[in-house]
Structure prediction request, 66 residues.
Amino acid sequence: MELKINGQWQEFPDGSTVSEVLDAVGATRQGVAVAVNGEVVRRGDWAASVVPKGASIDVLTAVQGG
Prediction:
């Protein structure tokens, strides 16, 4: 299935979870927030949250600076 990850379409197996998608794109788990179709997914739900086909996923990383 195709998913839009941070604005770019990528191919993933049907039934992929948020956790599996993060692993596939090499996203770190520290300081990361994930939204699927504009809805934030709690970190504790990543392993059980199946991503629907055609979903838009935003992976946001917290940064420090000034």
Observations:
- The first strand starts at residue 2 and ends at 5.
- The chain has a mean pLDDT of 93.
- The helical segments are 18-25.
- The two ends are 40 Å apart (CA to CA).
